[in-house]
């Protein structure tokens, strides 16, 4: 296992922060009848119209599943909750999201 000093997501605190996000995405996926990958893609699609996610897929089923993300409608509140959970993950392994929020025009509900 990698050293927690180099990969803080493997520390107890890192697992706990990740679990909060995972639990929320699991429940939201159940509510919206979609998979976590579709939620992730839907969240990215809501950021800005010029952001185009390019997920990798080896199987046709996964490719079709990814395309289904365009049918997942996220509310402003759901996007804000995901953002807040991500902002709470102040671990370097998660990309060190900047403290300064970037305003975006939500193209979802």
Describe this entry's structure for a reader:
The protein has about 110 residues and is mainly alpha-helical. The protein has one domain (about 10-95). It contains four helices and no strands. It has helices at about 10-30, 35-45, 60-65, 75-85. Helix 1 (about 10-30) packs antiparallel against helix 4. The longest helix is centred in the N-terminal third of the chain and has 21 residues, at about 10-30. The radius of gyration is 15 Å and the shape is globular. The model is unreliable at about 95-100 (pLDDT under 50).
Q: How large is the count of helical segments?
A: 4
Strand content: under 5%
Order of helices and strands: HHHH
When the domains are counted, the total is: 1
Bulk shape: globular
Structural class: mainly alpha
Ends distance: 42 Å
| E-strand count | 0
The amount of helix comes to 40-55%
Q: What's the alpha carbon Rg, rounded to whole Å?
A: 15 Å
Poorly predicted regions? 93-102
The chain-level mean pLDDT equals 80
Largest sheet: none
């Amino acid at each position: 296992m990698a050293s927690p000093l180099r990969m803080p997501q493997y520390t107890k605190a890192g697992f706990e922060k990740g679990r909060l996000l995972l639990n929320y995405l699991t429940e939201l996926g159940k509510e919206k009848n979609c998979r976590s990958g579709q939620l992730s893609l839907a969240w990215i699609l809501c950021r800005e119209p010029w952001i185009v996610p390019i997920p990798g897929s080896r199987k046709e089923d996964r490719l079709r599943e990814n395309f289904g993300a365009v049918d997942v409608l996220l509310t402003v509140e759901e996007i804000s909750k995901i953002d807040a959970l991500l902002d709470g993950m102040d671990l370097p392994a998660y990309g060190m999201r900047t403290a300064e929020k970037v305003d975006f025009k939500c193209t979802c509900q």
